[in-house]
Amino acid sequence: MERRRxxxxxxxxxxxxxxxxxxxxxxxxxxxLSPGGACLVVESALGIPERFDVMFDGDKSIRSCRMVWHxxxxxxxxxx
Length: 80
Prior knowledge:
By secondary structure, the chain is mainly beta. It has a single domain, classed as Beta Barrel (Thrombin, subunit H). 0% of the residues lie in helices and 60% in strands. It has a six-stranded antiparallel barrel. The radius of gyration is 12 Å and the shape is globular. The relative contact order is 0.25.
């Protein structure tokens, strides 16, 4: 059952999770993306705070987001 407000498009992009005033960085892969959120694949979801920024490789844009769910190596985020 789909619970998202907007459909996400499958993608495979590199990105970086930024927190601690951008002094801490975790590499991730964007698996799907919509104007309202994304699914990120990480080595481990442990230690990632509820709110952080994501910097997308390529265009270097930065989006503030909030973690809405997590599994062992995946996190779902909603853009602020």
